[in-house]
Amino acid sequence: MTYKFPWTEVGESPKTVCHVETRRWIPFEPGNTDYQEYLAWLAEGNEPLPADDPS
Amino acid sequence: MSILNVNQIQPVGSGQTVTISATNISAGSATVTAGTFTGNLTGNVTGNATGLSGSPTLSGITSVSTSNLTVNGNAYPSAGPLSNRNLIINGAMQVAQRGTSSTSTGYQTVDRFTVSRNGVSVTQSQETLSSGDPYDEGFRYFLRYTNTATNSSAQSFVEISQYIESQNVAQSGWNYKSSSSYITTSFWVRSSLAGTYYVHYNNDDVDKFVYNKAFTLSSNTWTKVTHSIPGDSSCVFNNDNGRGLRVVIVPHYGTDYTDSSSQTDAWFTRTTSNYSPDFAQNWSNSASATFDITGLQLEVGTVATPFEHRSYGDELARCQRYYQKMIVEDIKFTCSRWDQSQGVGECNVYLRETMRLAPTFAFTGTWDTGGGWGGDPVMTLARPDVVVLTTTVSTVAASGVKVLRSETTDASISFTAEL
After folding, report:
1. In a designed cystine with B245, which of B164, B173, B219, B342 is the match (CB 3.0 to 4.6 A)?
2. Contact of A52 with A14, CB cutoff 8 Å
3. Contact, B414 vs B324, CB < 8 A?
4. Residues B75-110: tens digit of each pLDDT
5. 3-state secondary structure of B362
6. Cβ within 8 Å, pair B390-A6
7. pLDDT tens digits, residue range B28-38?
8. Angle at B158 (CA atoms; ends B149, B287), nearest 5 degrees
9. If pLDDT is split at 50, 70 and 90, which confidence band does B239 have?
């Protein structure tokens, strides 16, 4: 399982994260079940990939 | 006062009527019987009036108290609202935004219904009805589970569930803290395998607090199941948009999940091994077994009223609070960049219904790149009623524009906020 952040403006923090394998974009919303899965994944010590470089 | 003691009063001659001229007729605790009562019955009437026929006009009645009132064959509610009674969404199985057949688990076909399984392989599908008792009641679809690979293990199970938002239960009119206040479930069900199955109710705001109701089926026969369950002082339904009540129809629980210590017809705190009593039959280990459901209704009170048929549009809108999908082949989302620096282009997508909460975004299809195209869509911000999509490419010039577009026929965008 892999997660990746979106590109963000300078000085801004991401508000969503991508579940790479399914190409789903997950909002940082506590009641969202996908976000809850993401938090559980983080709690296992994992880290998302950084955003892609400009292309 | 004079008292006339007689055994019988008969009209004189060939008459048929005896007229009693009095302001009041009192029969004490006795029953007054006649082949026919004519004229108006006025004043206070107490006791039971049975055998009313013909076309009597009843006026001045201010309340009718009965546990089960039926008028022209239609049962009337004993409690709760008189409209929007059904707490289940898409109970007639007519909306299937994601597709009509899937071998995957979770939300895949009929909206709002999710399948969980272990061991056994199952295909879930939306099927059409063309005859039979449910058809005669106005149903045209049913949800089918087909066993495609049997499994005999004790860990095998199959569940069909709908989660109901907690606030919908809290505001339903069910006094769920009271053991004398009820909700009633009704549905049509058919299994290729005869036996006794269970509906498992889970109060999600309380840890593992559940209620089981059994129902028995003959093989390949549509059966209308109705039952009521009471409230309990330990029930909790928070006034929020989280999981409140999970209604689970269970084709099979393996013996790892069943136990004689489990209960039916009572709320109890389950363990991991006593979801329900043992299943005598084994649907999971029956090749090509099918399990069909339609007409699922859950309402306040003790009476199963006629199914609340809703139009497709009404039901779709309700489903879209939890999932919505747009087919977007050749639809163009113009993403613009404001006038400062290079970066991604953005556009707002306004959702068709306000969703339960900020949704997850997914897309299908191949999205055009190069030139003025923006590549795959990216969701960078979500609210329950609007999301921001951006281009993948982050080289959109200041005040520039790129367009998100897919020309593949399977192109879609979807938003999920399921429970």
Report:
1. B164
2. no
3. yes
4. 889 888 888 999 999 999 999 999 999 999 999 999
5. strand
6. yes
7. 666 666 666 66
8. 30
9. very high
Distance CA B403, CA B331 (A): 10
In chain A, residues with a C-beta closer than 8 Å to the C-beta of B419 are 33
**A52 interaction partners in chain B (CB closer than 8 Å):** 392, 394
- B256 Cβ neighbours under 8 A, 6+ residues apart: B154, B155, B273
CA atoms of B372 and B404, how far apart (whole Å): 9
H/E element, B134: helix B133-136
Residues from chain B that touch A24, judged by Cβ atoms under 8 A, are: 360-362
Distance CA(B416)–CA(B343), nearest Å, equals: 27
3-state secondary structure of B314: helix
Contact between B191 and B291 (Cβ < 8 Å): yes
* B227 SS3 class: strand
What is the rounded CA–CA span in Å between residue B139 and residue B92? 6
CA–CA gap between residue B227 and residue B301 (Å, rounded) = 11
Break chain B down into helix, strand, coil percent, rounded to 5. 5, 35, 60
Three-state DSSP class for residue A52: coil
Lookup: tokens for B246: 């999970």
DSSP B221-266: --EEEEEEEE--TT----SSSSEEEEEEEEEEE-TTSB-TT--SSS
Q: B325 near B198, Cβ under 8 Å?
A: no
Residues B155/B275, Cβ–Cβ less than 8 Å:
no
Alpha-carbon distance values, A36 to A41, B280, B360 (Å): 9, 37, 12
Side-chain-side CA neighbours of B152 within 13 Å: the count stands at: 1
Cβ–Cβ contact A20 with B under 8 A = no
pLDDT per position as a tens digit, B174-192: 999 999 999 999 999 999 9
Question: What pairs with residue B254 in β-bridges?
Answer: none
Of the partner residues A23, A24, A31, the one whose CB lies closest to the CB of residue B241: A31
A52 touches chain B (CB under 8 A): yes
ipTM entry = 0.96
Per the structure block, which two tokens stand in for B267? 């709320």
Q: What is the pLDDT of residue B44?
A: 66
* Total length of chain B: 419
**Backbone angles phi and psi of A36, in degrees to 5:** -65, -40
What 8-state DSSP symbol labels residue B284? G
